[in-house]
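Input record (one chain):
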Amino acid sequence: MTARTYEYDDFGLNSLVVQHTCSDGLTMPLRHLHSQYEFLFVKSGKAVVESNATIIKIDSPTLIVHHPFSLHRANAESSPLYERYTINISNELLGRIRDLIPFFYLICSSGTTIIPFDEKTASAVFEQLEQIFNDCKSKKKQRALLEIAILLLTVTEYAAETKIPVPHSAGYIGDVIKYISSHYADDIKIAGLADYFFVSRSKLISDFKKSIGVSIKKYTMFVRISNAQHFLNTGKSITETATLCGFYDNSHFISTFRLLTGKTPKEYCKIRNR
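The corresponding structure, as predicted from the sequence alone:
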C-alpha cells in the first residue's frame, strides 16, 4: 500500500487532512466516526462502502460524503487497485467556503451523498485533487482551501446538472445525533431522549436503528470513543479521558475502547506516538 498524507490543525481539531492512497484491496472490520466531514473520492477499484444504514457498491469513479458523526467503513477487492483521495475537513473550516458553492445542500444534507462521475468529470476532479495535494505539500494552506472550494463547486454543479438524487433527510434523527454528539459525557437515557424529542420510546428506538444501523446505546459508545481518541491525542491520561467521556471507571472505558477500535487506549497511544 502507498499513501501520501498532509494535515494541518487550524482550530485545535485536525481541521484539514488530505490523503491519497493506493492499495491492493482494503479490509476495515470495524466502523468508526469522527467530528469532521469526510469526502471520499474513489478513483478506481471495486469497493463496498457503508455509511450509517446505507450500503454503496462502487466500481467506477465516485464521491461519497460521510457527514460528521456518521458511522462508516469501506472494504475493497484486491483487484483492480483500490485508489482514492480522502479529504477530512471540519465544519468550521468548511463554513469558510460554504457561500461559494451554490448547490452546497447536495453534499451537506443529513443523508448520505453519492455522486458517480462520468469519464470527463472524473478526469477534471482527480486533476483538481492532485493540485490540492500539491498545494498542501508546499504548505499553501489558503490556496488549498480555495482549490477545495473549486473542487466542491465542480462536483455539486455536475450533480445538479445530471440530477443526482438529493439524499433523504434523516429527519429528527439528525437532531438526535447532534444531541448525542454534544451530550455524550452525560448519562443518556432512551426514555429521556424520547421525551426531549416528543416521540414514543419504541418509535425512537425503531427510527434510530433504521436510519443509523445500530442501537442508540452502541452509537453513543462510538461517539464517546471517537472523542476519547481526540483527548488521548492531545495528551490526556487514560483516567482523565475516561472521565471526560462519561465512563464510570477505567475498566469499562478500556474494554469499550478495545471493542470499538481493536486496541486498548495504551496501545492506541503507542501507535500515535510512533
